[in-house]
Amino acid sequence: MAADGGMHAEHGPRFAERAPDALNNPQLRRNFRRAMDGLMAKRAAQFPDPAYWAELRERGAAVKARALAKLPDLLERLESRLTANGVQVHWAETTEEANAIVLGILQQAGARTVIKGKSMVSEEMHLNAHLERHGIEAVESDLGEYIIQLAGETPSHIVMPCIHKNKDEISDLFAEKIPGLERTGDVDELTAAARRVLRERFANADAGISGVNFAVAETGTLVLIENEGNGRLSTTLPPLHIAVTGIEKVVEYLDDIPPLLALLPRSATGQPITTYVNMISGPRKAGEKDGPTAVHLVLLDAGRSRVYQDVELADTLRCIRCAACMNHCPVYTRVGGHTYNAIYPGPIGKILTPQLQGLDAAGDQPHASTLCNACAEVCPVKIPIPDLLVRLRREAVRPTETPATHLPPLYSTVVKDGGAERSWTESLVWAGWRLVYTRPLLYRMVTRALAWGGNWVPADAPLMRDWTKARAKPRFKPRTLHDLARERGYLNEVPK
């Protein structure tokens, strides 16, 4: 785990090293292309009126911006209301602390089996592995999460975790992992097989664990949305419910929820609303027939407070985890989520992961972007993702000890491991470039020298290698643009 309590650093090859494998996997690319095309079309159908879309996302952005502006106060109000409702609230500064809290609750209750609803924060905590090491079995109940758990993989998408797999691959996996099931290409049969396994898990689980989409400070309400009913079963059928969430999920009023519910499902899956909207405000009360007898909420920081300190980068915390930015990203669509080697892939991951893990671990992520602005255009809460990518690129090469002179006074330099991607060779090259381009005589001498001998430089030369491994080697012409313009008399003309 990161020393400051951020997400566990993912060891192994970085994005640029992993991308060629994905690009050379035609089946993976077909899977993602088909899925992303469908999701983009469904989302577009949900927002046919540009004026309505603009108005709705203004409301959503305002709700999240107001909540962030009051975040410390709202978290205290949330804790107070939940406690009054009978929910036990726990604070975790690090993922290690969060895992210890969850494990302690389960051990105190004597729980040996857990059924889990979908939760990206639990993925951030690597909770399943932590519980397994202590003899507690955790089974994912979301169908996509269940599939990748069987496959021993991590999610490749924050809403549809197994989107990288097609029907045939899932059929082979089920036939191998589910006893007594023969291989079948029938989607209904595959779903029914998973349902049979999970139904028994729901009935016998000692505890349920879930994530949280929104936490309402005014009423002490945990809002969870889902389509399969597994979230509702995970939070109501077992006698113990533990919810885990990041501190940024709090909103101020219950009235803030409708505009967010109007945005999230439409942006995520192209649905007007999810099948289930669950609002949990406490454990089972006297006379009620269902629900857990105890409810706990674990509020995780894990670097979010550091992000919150910066006026510009704090916009990252507006995210409502809809994944619209991923669905429209030309980079993500071509390489998939596993290429990022991070819990949160795609555009939102490229700004969130470096801030939580640090630029030393994920400083390459902000560069895995074309800056085409598609992510910003579809973000339902108006996160300026391209602007933040550029900011993080600057932070990655700025020496940690140098004051942030490129930022207004209100901005704090709080990005972990600032300057981790700095290359002194690259710095010297840019210093040389600046020297040449600010001195006309030197510029003419260098360009003529390159025109004479530049083409003799081999493509695998040290300063050329990083460029030519993905691009053609530039060829220098014997005559400069100035030569051609002077020959045609353009440099002698006086502008009118």
TrEMBL record:
Looking at the record, the residues that make up the 4Fe-4S ferredoxin-type domain are 309-339
> What Pfam families has UniProt attached to this entry?
Fer4_8, LUD_dom, LutB_C
The processes (GO biological process) annotated in the record are: lactate metabolic process
Report if keyword Electron transport is assigned. Answer: yes
**Is ATP-binding given among the entry's keywords?**
no
Q: What is this protein called?
A: L-lactate dehydrogenase complex protein LldF
Q: Which organism is it from?
A: Nitrospirillum amazonense
Q: Where is this region: Disordered?
A: 1-22
Task: List the GO molecular function terms.
Answer: 4 iron, 4 sulfur cluster binding; metal ion binding
Where do Basic and acidic residues bias regions lie? Answer: 7-20
Name the keywords, alphabetized.
4Fe-4S, Electron transport, Iron, Iron-sulfur, Metal-binding, Repeat, Transport
Q: What InterPro entries does the record tag this protein with? A: 4Fe4S_Fe-S-bd (IPR017896), 4Fe4S_Fe_S_CS (IPR017900), FTHF_cligase-like_sf (IPR024185), Helical_ferredxn (IPR009051), LUD_dom (IPR003741), LutB/LldF (IPR004452), LutB_C (IPR024569), NagB/RpiA_transferase-like (IPR037171)
